[in-house]
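Hi R.,

Here's the chain you asked about this morning:
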Amino acid sequence: MSRRLPARLVLHAGLHKSGTSTVQLALRAAYGTPTDGIWFPLMDPPELGHELIAWTLLGIVHDRLSRQLGSAGAVGISPVHLRSLIARSADLGVDTLIVSSEVLDRLDTAAAAALRDELGGVPTTAVLTVTSPVHRWYANWQESIKHGATTRPLDDEAVAAQRSMTAPGMLARLVALLPADEVVVRLVRPSPPEPDLVHSLLTACGLAPVAGLDLAPPANLGIGADVELMRRLNALGITSDLPVAERLERFATFRAAVRRVPRVGAARPGYGVPQWFADAARDEEAWLRGLDRRGRVRVVDPHRLLDRWAEVAVPDWIRDVEGSDWPELPDVDGHHSE
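And here is the predicted structure, written out as tokens:
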């Protein structure tokens, strides 16, 4: 006779660009089939991750599949409801079900209520992996360019702040929305990458590290200074309407064919942080420091990142963007080297 519920759900809900892909690859390898009472269910088709669960929850599954795979590639892929995975895990005798999707950091009030209904009373630990505000600002903007966007970081501050979760109080709001019995906020060092991030997260959730699992350190699969080249290709319509894989292939072809040369003159417009950013970063640091470690929310900071949390210095790769030009392609904003 099957149990009605698994004993526990671990819900890794992002944030974006915080080592999530590395975590998901490791969990897939270790627990893609139930092992020692732990299950990280694989999707159908397997190349899709748990974003399929999050898209289903948010009611955007068909739109996102079409964007990522193209209309033809999305045919025949069904939504995946968390409640069905919970029921299936109980049938399999699973003690701990693990779900991981950075898309869950987009929860709003309605989606949080829907998630609570999907959980159906399963004891839940929510995990957030979080990098510093300035890293989130630039890393999430770069990811948007990889997905077809055409703006610079400062062209639409509201959208950039929403995407990077750097708007004032946004991280605190997400934590308050998560329908979990406890929340673990793990502060992540993006550079140099943490080789033991996966084991650290498992330990923070009361799970044993995976013996014998060969883990690669987290890697930001960014495109560095050439992100400006890709932004121009998107704005010129050369790559913007393609599925992600085709867009990156076409970008790679152009990157090999055009020159990147030093840019003369002032810093490239549009690549800083907004005026409100430093205050918001300091407020986020103060909020993290003020959390009661014995309460519902625990902050895990093994690398003492809070000591530098509110720094807003421009990263080196953005300086490379500002100091580079690609003369074979027009500057789509009308700014030219002199």
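One quick note: Residues 61-74 form the longest helix (14 residues).

Cheers,
M.
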